[in-house]
Amino acid sequence: MAQLDLPLFPLSAVLFPGASLSLRIFEPRYLSMIGDCSRAGTGFGVCLILEGRESGLPASPVAIGTVARISDFSTLPDGLLGISVVGGERFQVGSTRVRSDGLIRGQVRLWPEEPTVPVPVEFSLLPVVLERLIEQLHGPWRDADRRCYDNAAWVGFRLAELLPLPHPEQQFLLELTDPLERLAELRDRLPRFQRP
Asked: How far apart are CA 91 and CA 72, in angstroms?
């Protein structure tokens, strides 16, 4: 598995592979990081915050995160930099160091992409639920190829992203390495969201 040195952006959010995320960038350490990533055409790591806050002193990130690749820039109404990112590979942080400007860098090991596995018949309700959810939320997946709905990894990541799950549960689902195990976990959580 590939190893690399990656700047880390601890957030109160979980980024899944293939998911989009919009961020407001205002701290000098992150403005510098975004500039470096843009020039080099590289990404940065998004990790859920384990301890601390998004701004101010460096927060402690969880060990499993997702590479974020910048897809768009904008100037927000308040004059701050806005960026859109797309989730790429998952990674595991081996060690971290904090630069003098407060930016955390991690030695990370990239995880391989999950295999394409068809959605088994016992989970056939999940793609239907996902399609309805996407229709209701008018999200970015409205034009997804129909074949995506038969890819267990894609269905699992999209449901984990779109269902209103607490961050620790989303993190747990991100860390699973078997797409069918993720579908089983999601199926068990679905009754919580059904109307009486």
From this structure: 23
Kindly report the number of other CB atoms within 10 A of residue 125's CB atom. 11
Is the pTM above the cut of 0.85?
A: yes
Burial of 167: CB neighbours in 10 Å, binned 0-12, 13-18, 19+: middle
Nearest Cα to 137, choosing from 159, 156, 122, 153?
Answer: 159
Angle, CA 159 vertex, CA 154 and CA 160 arms, to 5°: 100
pLDDT tens sequence across 156-165: 999 999 999 9
Are 23 and 176 in contact by the 8 Å Cβ rule? The answer is: no
Contact 46, 22 (CB under 8 A): no
* Residue 113 Cα distances to 80, 110, 173, angstroms: 34, 9, 15
